[in-house]
Specification:
five-stranded mixed β-sheet; binds S-adenosylmethionine; SAM-dependent MTase RsmB/NOP-type domain-containing protein
């Protein structure tokens, strides 16, 4: 339908999962398999046509293919050797970049894209023992089942401790000892998301069509009500997002926290960063926004400087320009995928 065509994403992003590249995590054999199906290499994702492939310049082992190319029927996909994950959604684990000595909490894990991506950094090759190095939290029991399934397919279920419940209540430094880093990707308005209808149509899943109800309310009034509703919703979401990051910040051994949303609204993005920086307790804990050099420096689209300028004026110890540079934004479609925001907090 027209609806689905309008929802057409420019790229479908797939990453090779080194945790399923036995015995040594070498991704070359999987890439060789992919090259059999995708024979033409293009220099830019905007040049993708069916049967071609783009090698991403920002995230290792990530590739773009044309959205009409069916990949879910491929053996590599079925065996978890490749995972479908939007490019921007790959930024958090890449920025956190945990190594073999790190212990990470993924605060809001399901369906598990960032959890398994994080695992691929901790284990440069498929893990051989059952050492827990990731604590994954997920509040929704149904979604937690999908998470369990995904980490099994991705080959890291014995190294991830899945906890079903509220991260702010269940996760404590006593339970999760030695935590060094966090992925905090909480529920958000999802205003940057598109393309679901299209991919659902490809996968022949049922699409939830919203019924067009009779317009009883005049247009202008409806627009006003919708704006009010959105503001109330964003206020609720941002205070929840703030609490999630603040709880992560309370862990004494943590050095790095990556916060992300798939929202285009400043309320859930730069404003959450501002509220955290202004919080006295957060200041005492010593958290700062990481500089651009630590967060995919070559990615051109950064945070909105005007949001920081509004709060941090002359005489403030914060430089709005530097704060904005420390954030990453991705625009829906224009930047090759969903709308996204990422920032990294660090401390010595
Ligand atoms: N990080 C996931 C990924 O990359 O696949 C996507 C996470 S999704 C944006 C947010 C998730 O947080 C939802 O599954 C939601 O149920 C969960 N959630 C919401 N509040 C939570 C809480 N207080 N504790 C743990 N999980 C929570």
């Amino acid at each position: 339908s027209e609806d689905i065509v309008n929802d057409l994403p420019p790229v479908r992003w797939i990453r090779i999962n080194p945790l399923k590249c036995h015995p040594d995590g070498n991704t070359e054999p999987v890439l060789a398999e992919l090259k059999k199906k995708f024979t033409q290499k293009v220099d830019n994702w905007s040049e993708l046509v069916p049967g071609s492939i783009y090698y991403d310049e920002y995230i290792p082992n990530l590739f773009g293919i044309h959205p009409t190319d069916k990949i879910t029927a491929h053996e590599l996909y079925k065996h978890g050797k490749i995972i479908i994950q939007d490019r921007a959604s790959c930024f958090p684990a890449h920025i956190l970049h945990p190594g073999s000595n790190d212990i990470v909490i993924d605060a809001c894990s399901a369906p598990g894209n960032k959890t398994t991506h994080t695992a691929s950094y901790i284990f440069s090759e498929p893990p051989k023992d059952k050492k827990i190095q990731i604590y994954a939290f997920e509040k929704d029991p149904e979604r937690a089942k999908i998470l369990q399934k995904m980490i099994k397919v991705a080959g890291c279920s014995s190294n991830i401790d899945v906890n079903v419940g509220d991260f702010t209540k269940l996760a404590t430094p006593e339970k999760c000892k030695g935590v060094t880093g966090f992925i905090v990707d909480p529920s958000c308005s999802g205003s940057g998301i598109f393309g679901r209808k299209f991919f659902d149509s490809l996968n022949r899943r049922k699409i939830d069509e919203k019924d067009d109800e009779d317009d009883a309310v005049p247009d202008e009034q409806e627009e006003f009500m919708a704006k009010e509703e959105l503001q109330t919703r964003l206020a609720k979401l941002s205070s929840f997002q703030f609490q999630m990051v603040k709880h992560a910040m309370s862990f004494p051994g943590a050095k790095k926290i990556v916060y992300s949303t798939c929202s285009i609204h400043a309320e859930e993005n730069e404003r959450v960063v501002i509220d955290l920086l202004l919080d006295k307790v957060v200041q005492e804990w010593g958290w700062k926004v990481a500089s651009r050099t630590e967060v995919v420096p070559s990615w051109p689209r950064r945070g909105k400087v005007e949001e920081f300028e509004e709060v941090f004026r002359d005489g403030s110890s914060h430089d709005p320009q530097q704060l904005a540079e420390g954030c990453i934004r991705a625009l829906p479609k224009e930047d090759g995928g969903i709308g996204f925001f990422t920032v990294c907090f660090v401390r010595e």
